[in-house]
Amino acid sequence: MERAYNFNAGPSALPLEVLEKAQAELINFRNSGMSVMELSHRSKEYDQVHEEAQQLLRELLQIPDNYDVMFLQGGASLQFSMIPMNLLGKGQTGNYVLTGSWSEKALKEAQLLGETIIGASAKDSNYSTIPDVKDIQTSPTDAYLHITSNNTIYGTQWKEFPKGFDLIADMSSDILSRPLNVSDFAMIYAGAQKNLGPSGVTVVIMRKDLHDRTPENTPTMLRYDTQANSSSLYNTPPTFAIYMLNNVLNWVKEQGGIEAITSKNEAKAKLIYDAIDESEGFYKGHADKASRSLMNITFTLPSEELTKKFLTEAKKEGFIGLGGHRSVGGCRASTYNAVPVEACEALRQFMVEFKNNN
Fold it and tell me: Which end of the chain has a smaller Cβ tally under 10 Å, C or N?
């Protein structure tokens, strides 16, 4: 069976080379006589995988020494709670910029645990734009400023990040897709299932001095210092997911690192955005052009009937995951790192032909 053109929003495409490597090692990992899923998380064989994944992340993202790299569980959604539990003190506010559903959910969890404010919101535009950094309202009591760097549902992405704050970013859908200055952030977190690997592990990159803020009564497993001090091995980690993460990181390095990945991502997105922009209004992008995402391309067709026809015919041609989120409708092509250029070229051609025929 041929590989599908996988445009799923997440879990999403993985590099074929990574899948083939996992297939080859599945039963006997590095002559251990066991699958990596069977290894003790305290074993030397697994420890090498764990440490290599941490070091590769540091290398690829140029993470400074005063940051911890953690592999946690519970998805990015658990971080919505852990952040205020650990970092939002009495008399302080958590400042949230709303750019879509995930930032709304992060705010909702923080509101259960402390005081919050909304520094800026794009809700009035149906989340088709990213607020200008100059328009973000702040307060002297802000413990941190929280953003979602890329919005999978609406297809928008921050092009410029706020500076001068303890900035926390949910980068679940665009981490490792473009250059980044980690020092501009107090904390970055990302569920792996879009650009880093399969679901099951969440990467957290945190400036070490933030651990001093954690209240003493914070539960042990929900403390960042617990995880940092134990190298994310306080309890059994998701070993297979971390093994796959390590394989993906090695693949990124082999591709030429983030610069090479960025160039490919820009080329892939341009193929599809050009099909939208050159369609004479047949396809309409949801996101404002200045806020367009390189990872999630959202668009609509002239009618619901044509949308259904588009998705039905696309599926017959091997395109998977092109349906838009239920809250927005229309279509969405997620072009994460592992989606090959050839898949985007094929989608562009399909879009042009569908428009010409309809």
Answer: N
Q: Please write the tens of the pLDDT for every residue from 80-102.
A: 999 999 999 999 999 999 999 99
- 3-state helix, strand, coil split of the chain in percent (to 5) is 45, 15, 40
Bridge partners of residue 19, in order along the sequence: none
Structural domains in the chain (count): 2
Using a 10 angstrom Cβ sphere, with 0-12 exposed, 13-18 middle and 19 or more buried, the burial of residue 134 is exposed
**Does 316 reside within a domain?**
yes
Q: Which residues pair with 93 in a beta bridge?
A: 115, 142
Give pTM, 2 decimals.
0.97
One domain for residues 110 and 244: yes
Same domain, 224 and 307: no
CA distances 89 to 6, 84, 92, 113, 114, Å, are: 43, 8, 5, 10, 8
List the structure tokens of 341.
């250029």
Known catalytic residues?
102, 170, 194
Residue 52 CA, distance from chain mean position: 21
Shared-domain flag, residues 186 and 54: yes
- All residues at 6 or more sequence positions from 357 whose CB lies less than 8 Å from its CB, including other chains: none
